[in-house]
């Protein structure tokens, strides 16, 4: 029996040559996703293949940036945390599968959509009040891809980019603001695992650098204390 997604023209229309057709398909898809229905993982992967090529076909920086944000906004219309996490998982698996096929001329817009989706990933946890079960499932998704430690199927280029923007996007979704109830130490665990266990030296180095970012709790304080100790040293007085 065909599933709902197979009965829609979304897949082909999302990858259409003309922008009006792609825009109309995306608008219809938004309404489709907001309805109370669950899609199997395989159907979500098919859907994300269409969304991947929707961005692939997009030209010019401003429309590309707008589309990257619109794709990330799809997460928020899904009716439940479990469906949001499944949708995120399909996105990350699609990026893993397609990353090495992206040419240099198209890479910039895919770097941007990854940035937007990392923020959306954090927002799912924030919007659920950092509920422990949701946080655990989202972190599990990140650790499966793009922050998986050893799997050679995850391109290091994708890992590098996510590590580079990880703290930026934590800051973007107000995780690092004073008074935030976010479990920052838990959110940093994917980076810690990469820093400790990756067989790739560059990945380990980048992860350690991200963990040392002065915007993270504790890092700036330590730096200030060290500076204070230095300023307070007046040498041996005669």
UniProtKB/TrEMBL annotation:
One annotated GO biological process: rRNA processing
Organism in which the protein naturally occurs: Phialocephala subalpina
Region described as Disordered: spans on this chain: 214-238
Record localization: Nucleus
Pfam name, any one: Nop52
Keywords annotated in UniProt: Nucleus, rRNA processing
A GO CC term assigned to this protein in UniProt: preribosome, small subunit precursor
UniProt cross-references to PANTHER family, sorted A to Z: NNP-1 PROTEIN NOVEL NUCLEAR PROTEIN 1 NOP52 (PTHR13026), RIBOSOMAL RNA PROCESSING 1B (PTHR13026:SF0)
Family: Belongs to the RRP1 family.
Protein name according to UniProt: Related to RRP1 protein
Record's compositionally biased regions (Basic and acidic residues): 214-225
